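Q: What would this complex look like in 3D?
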Amino acid sequence: MKRNPILRIVAKFLIPLIILFALYVQFHGDFGPGGGFQAGVIFSAALILYALVFGLDAAEKIIPPHILRILASAGVVLYASVGVVSLFLGANYLDYSVLGSTQIKGQHLGILLVELGVGMTVTAVMLIIFFAFAGRGRP
Amino acid sequence: MGNHISLLLVVIPLIAAPIVAVLPRGRLPWLATLIITFICAVLASSQLWMVLNDGVISYELGGWAPPWGIEYRIDAVNALVALIVAAIAAITLPYALLSAEKEIPQQQIPLFYSAFLLCLTGLLGITQTGDLFNVFVFLEISSLSSYALISLGRNRQALTSAYQYLIMGTIGATFFLIGVGLIYSQTGTLNMQDLAKLLPELAHLKTVHTGFAFIMIGIALKLAMYPLHLWLPNAYTYAPSVVTVFLAATATKVAIYIMLRVLFTIFPNDFLLATPTYDIFILSGMAAIIIASIYAIYQSNIKKLLAYSSVAQIGYIALGIGFASSKGITAALVHLFNHALMKAALFMAVGAIIYRIGSCNMKNINGLGKQMPWTFGAIVIAGLSLIGIPGTAGFISKWYLVTAALEQQAWISVAVILFGSLLAVIYIGKLIEALYFKPVTDSNQSVQEAPLLLLVPLWVLVCANIYFGLDTSLTVGVAEKAADVLGVINTSSISGVMNK
Amino acid sequence: MDFFISHYNYWIVIFLMMVGLYTVINRGNLIKKIIGLNIFQVSVFFLYISIGTVKEGAAPIITEGVKLYSNPLPHVLILTAIVVGVATTALGLALVVRIKESYGTIEEDEIHEMDHSL
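A: Here is my prediction, written as structure tokens for the whole assembly.
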């Protein structure tokens, strides 16, 4: 890849922007279009671009596969446990209203945490899928 | 806490699945899964108890009132099916330890249990939810994890059969999705109770008819209703034994449950009578019983033999649905329960044989009955139950099915049911002959009885087969109640061809 | 003719649906089958989205001065269905990779032949 300076420089320039955009989509999801699914895919797209340009080994140094596996699991657990917390607070499963001091604050916090869980899992799973396919032929 | 049971039944395995996936190798993932499945079984039985005593449970997810939010709605029908799923999972798990260690690569064991839990989540979710789209989501959770589970089989055919199942299953699920979309476009709701209220007025619309057809085909693909069963024999044959036990006993049963829900809860009866639905069920059921049984006779792989027999048994259930009387539905539900018991027992016994000799081909099992008396005994009893000998669970379901047929004077159906039993005698007889009456081959001289950890769950199921053949208060009692819930009217007025 | 033009979204859906299903059934190549499956699923996404449209309704984002919104529920449903579709595709492709590794081919008839010549 050393012979493709344009690719490398453009990628280095774009990747932070893509990540920034992913974060925007993630956290702006309760006001406009967006949310964990979309943000997760955009975020993983940034890392996949990195892997395509700089190679699989370099990408795996940034996020090792075993951490991805934990991240994917943690996202689902975060999602599900937000629901369990509202169970313990005496409401129905995934009823966010009881999470904050007022109903609106509770709903905000709830959806934010849930979408964070979704974003984590989607990012991790997309990368796991990519690494699994891309790394298949390697010795 | 009481009213949260219906929810916990889905959430507990869901939370457990990702945790199990990251546990270290060894026996810890198995232990965690074992505990979870037992908790689920206890929850499912208390749920059934609650439903029988206090009536319908309704749970609003996220505190959003139905029909806007997702509602979990449990009556006698779902409670029974959920209990079947959870109980079979709990019985399969002790069996899974050794069988999975033998048949699945070591490094994939945690992921195997994780997928198993996801499959359980999906199946239990289908039984709990009262929202049609939610059914699709859970259906896909259970299907995707079962494709992965099947592909873990040792043989490379496991891969192709998992692929085939994936294609067929996805087409089925997408058909279901199209149907739900078309119905949603006319009613604007996805809640089953709400749909039941709105549909009678809209039943004349072509879109509703089309949606109904799509939903039916979609579910029929998932439940392997003849002639949409092509994925089933290979998938069951090449999957690891544990997976076959679990899927054979639960996956198709849950699909049958959705079928019952869609037919009897959601769509109005006049609508169904105006379509040839019931006749199709009866025709498909009869074809399944005869053709799949004949196929079963000619199989040389025991697992494939039993898989074809499963297709035939689904035919009996379809026949029960097709009678569309409360007796017919009772028979279908009783058979759903009993078939889960006997097929799980038979596949477990075959799994025990595979554990010892590593093969399940007819020609390799000669004389094993003497070497493995307990496994052989289990095959005999479960086989008799499959045939429908009095004193076993199978007899009860056949009995109810025949009475349901006689009630409508459907003589052809009665003849087919009896003929199907005769065919079952042949294929079970073939199995027993090879196991017991053929001389022991040299390579099998040193084979020993299967380990206790495999035999105990097997015999629990075998004893259940006998118990539910003698005491029918649980199965038939609950099934009759469930048939009442589904509100089947006695349709002696059906103008079907087959019922005359 | 007006009927055809005013329902053009459904014609697109039906066309894609048929193309997808035909590809799944007709093609022997396992990858092409999955592509067909994807087209088939995408047609259903279109179906849902066009069901959710309200005539002259704005995108369902709360904005001042807008009274009529499209129905957002089908969008949410389809978001879920898309995720299911991604998972199915990934699993299907993973199976194809494994099939290629153990059979050396991804043509259905060749695989069939190899299984039955054993």
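A: To summarize the key features: The CA atoms of residues 325 and 489 of chain B lie 6 Å apart. Confidence is low (pLDDT under 50) at residues 489-500 of chain B.
Q: Very helpful, thank you.
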